[in-house]
Design a protein that fits this description.
single chain, 344 residues, alpha+beta, 6-stranded mixed beta sheet, 5-stranded mixed beta sheet, 6 helices, 15% helix, globular
């Protein structure tokens, strides 16, 4: 996040988002997510086992994305509950996306506490846990059968409070729309010789001006430009998995490319292209994921200790049950290096 954007970008106010209050998170407060989930195997067969057209996408995620995290099935189920609860609380007016084919009879969401989503169209979501003990992004898809497909997870960095102009990353459901057009990194260095948005050409996913908790001075809230973007590959990317940003979401460069090239959150962009719009930020020759979505969802698991499946940067991940025994997915996260940035 940068509070010193060029003038033409500062003028892009009026964010499209549905920001939620901090909810009880299904009774997980004060406990780690790893402690809160059941120890028995997941029985909810609506989490797709991988024997459908989405299975190759999971393998592709593993090939293309680094800084991956192997999330055990029990934790997956808990995060799906948090996602479903957030979406239900937000009461999205456009959950059934225009042009999306709804299933004839979507299966109920009874296994996901407090969340009945019968009208939710097939679409992809990016879910982020801002808990300092987790710091991860999860890619999941709502399927035409009314279930959920877990694609993969990677380490991220969210807002680190305690310094001037550093915000706590806001909770909520944020729409990725053309009201706040994306742009691409120029790859230039700031005054601290850091590429705040990463290498040239990396996409900056823009969610507009959002109200967020100030992490300095007397606290309170004010608006920040909320974005999801890559970061400096030499000095900062190795710190993913720990709080480090000014409030935005830093993601691995490989995840940035995956989201970009496969249109994970580009439902609105794709509809505009289909209607004849010319969008310079969209590169030709993309291979789209089934059912591109438009929502970034931020939650806080309120974990009080680090789960074994989400180690600190540089730490060796503990062995966890594979989410898909048919495919081996070793977690990948380079070691710690570099210094904190001045911005973003």
């Amino acid at each position: 996040m940068s509070s010193a954007l060029p003038a033409r970008r500062r003028l892009l106010a009026g964010a499209t988002a549905l920001v939620l209050p901090a909810w009880s998170l299904l009774g997980l407060a004060g406990r780690s997510l790893a402690q809160a989930v059941p120890t028995d195997p997941v029985q909810d067969d609506r989490v797709a086992p991988g024997d459908d057209p989405l299975a190759p996408w999971r393998a592709q995620f593993e090939r293309e994305v680094d800084h991956r995290i192997a999330v055990p099935p029990q934790a997956q189920q808990s995060y799906l509950g948090l996602l479903a609860q957030a979406l239900a609380d937000a009461a999205l007016p456009d959950a059934a996306l225009p042009g999306a084919a709804l299933p004839d009879a979507a299966l109920p969401d009874a296994a996901l506490p407090g969340a009945a989503l019968p009208g939710l169209a097939p679409q992809a979501f990016v879910l982020v846990d801002r808990s300092p003990q987790v710091q991860a992004a999860f890619i999941v898809l709502r399927t035409p059968a009314g279930g959920w497909f877990w694609l993969g997870a990677a380490a991220v960095s969210t807002g680190k409070v305690g310094s001037f102009e550093h915000f706590r990353t806001p909770l909520g459901v944020f729409a990725h729309t053309l009201d706040n057009p994306d742009f691409r990194a120029e790859g230039t260095f700031n005054q601290n010789h850091i590429r705040g948005y990463g290498l040239r050409g990396r996409r900056v996913f823009d969610f507009g001006w959002q109200l967020a908790e100030r992490g300095w001075g007397v606290g309170g809230s004010s608006k920040m430009r909320f974005q999801m973007h890559a970061t400096d590959p030499q000095r900062l990317e190795a710190r993913l998995g720990s709080v480090a940003s000014e409030g935005c979401i830093r993601i691995p460069a490989t995840l940035n490319v995956f989201l970009d090239q496969h249109g994970v959150l580009d439902a609105d962009y794709e509809r505009a292209l289909a209607a004849g719009a010319s969008l310079w930020v969209i590169k030709p020759g993309r291979t789209l994921i089934p059912w591109p979505g438009r929502y970034l969802v931020i939650v806080d698991s309120l974990a009080t200790e680090r789960p074994a499946w989400s180690p600190l940067p540089g730490a060796k991940p503990a062995a966890v049950p594979d989410v898909n025994p048919a495919v081996a997915r070793p977690a990948s996260r380079p070691g710690l290096a570099g210094a904190p940035p001045a911005r973003r």
